[in-house]
Amino acid sequence: MWLLQLAWALAALGVVSGSSPGSGPTVPSLDQASIFADLSAAELRAVRTFLMSRPELGLSPSREGTLAKNTLFMVELLPPKKKLALRYLDHGGPRPRRQARAVVFFGGQAEPNITEFAVGPLPRPSSYRPLRFKGGRAIPFSARPMTQLEYELLHRTLAAALEPLYQLLRDSTGFWYHNCSGRCLTFSDIAPRGLASGERRSWLVLQRFVEGFFLHPVGLEVLVDHQDPDPQRWAVQQLWYNGRYFSSPQELAESYERGMLEVAHLDKLPARQLFSSYEPRGSFATGTPTEVHGAKVCEPQGRRYRLQGNRLEYGGWSLAFRLRSSAGLQLFDLRFNGERLAYEVSVQEAIAFYGGHTPAAMQTKYMDAGWGMGSVTYELARGIDCPETATYVDAHHLYDTDGPARFSHAICVFELPTGVPLRRHFDSDFQGGFHFYAGLEGRALVLRTTSTVYNYDYIWDFLLYPNGVMEAKVHATGYIHATFYTPEGRRYGSRVHSHLLGNLHTHLVHYKVDLDIAGTGNSFETMDVRFENISNPWSPGARHLPPAPHPPMWVGSRWHSWGGGTGTLPQPQHPGTWVQSPYPVLTLPRPCRYHLAVTRHHEDEPSSSSIYAQNDPWEPLVSFEGFLRNNETIEDQDLVAWVTVGFLHVPHAEDIPNTATPGNAVGFFLRPFNFFDEDPSVASRSPVIIRPLDPPVCSRLEIQRWTPDSPGPCVDPWPFTYNGTYRPH
Known about the structure:
By secondary structure, the chain is mainly β. The chain has eight helices and 38 strands. Strand 13 and strand 14 form a beta hairpin.
């Protein structure tokens, strides 16, 4: 696990240009922020209605029928080009046209493909045009994300194929797949789907369908070829059962019937306190109470932030945000005291690479943008996922649905006591008294959402601190991706239950950080501090110890009062975890091969990954390596930093029932570094200063503060409520 620091200013580098930042800092209006706002339910519906009405597209409803048809898969905001947005935000230029990005699966034609369209102008669309990936490559139909219809067809295929295994499964697990009504098996699918571009073959892991079914594999994995749009042509190609491969369900069934199969008999599951459930069991040795409420966050004098639409303000901070169905949270126009620090900070991709002995385990390399990482933003539970005091924001997604679906409370905003002072000092007189004490409470504003990508839950945070620091952080929790235990599997993980192996894996998360430090003319360079062994000038014969090396820096184009320039600085705080895929079929995705990569901004390089990378990682449509290998100068240019953070997860018994968040978080900071003349949090009215009036006795104190003496009542007595629905409307 490691954290990366990007300090957004730099001290005393002579290479910095002396250009002035132009007009003074301004705080953008709510109307300006709205150019980055997600599409409303009405806009999503208008786009769908318009496209469905176009006879040349021949679109059909997505949730029924066959895959051999044309369907509208996804609609989301198509952000304005940066050049047009800055012209509008900074120079009073025309407001950019509001457009949608629409993804259409053309499965009902002789050569199926996927096409993306720009649709507009909103709110009343009247035209559309194709969008092209860099290089003009077409999107192969086999690269499409999975849909609910394809899963339903896979279920039917599997039910028919596993009919010969009814007796084996019932005898060994107490559950079955064919013609099931109560004690049912289910499956989880693995990606990438095959070994080469154009394939669509998925390993399916059979599990008992109980609460936390991810932890209940039964020892059977099935490889299904579902490349053809016609499910009648799908076929089971291989099976793996308890360490052996079989060419067909019939071969496996015959082996069982002849008594030639080593059967994995699973224990009967209890009705209550299942090991994969959250039901309390056991007790703590101290006996301290857990059946009463613990500490809570409160706002005794009300909120200290302002949220209007998609515009958020807190202290010196202001920003616009959106929640992309494709990839999640995206910040725009990030400013401090009215001065832009970054045009965009956004999540790009989350990757998990696994090792294992079973075919499904060794094939698992998840790239979660391909699973609709931004669309699985289910309801946040008040008081658990976010404090009771948080402000909650709904999201609307049109992702594999026949209309916009409302995800209530998908985003939350709250001010968080950090539990540690932002800064403090006790000035002792070394005679039992003190000269003064001063401290400023630690607070941060948190913008949060979650992504539940099947088994894993990612908690995505952006934190804004009063001293000009921004932190991007992700916690990993939820169920581990586990496979059936075999003795050979212990090379690739830990045995975490009787028939369960927790597979070793690496999490890698990729961010885009489009920093505009005092304008778009930035540079990136490294500054090495050399070790020197010199004599101490005031003590002949003694040697002077050298300073530590300095990490790379991001250089901006403005001088501050003490002679430094502005910029950023990547500084790992902990050693990073880097892996190359142990299988020759697939190397590490190119965006995640680097802790930090810096490129020039290009309008045709909006993201480092795509929703198609998961199912065609061999020939990805977005070639991140091409971003780097064009040999462009990065001096005094509009630059983008691509940041990868990650950690190695060796599952253990304490990951049951779920992986806990402590120790499973990664992220990076944006930190001011000689950008201001002093810590900007001095503008806060929350410090406390204490001075003795009768030193050194210190019996009478002057307590100076700028907030009320008492915070007053803290928590409102609202009962816990939860809904959890996200249905189309």
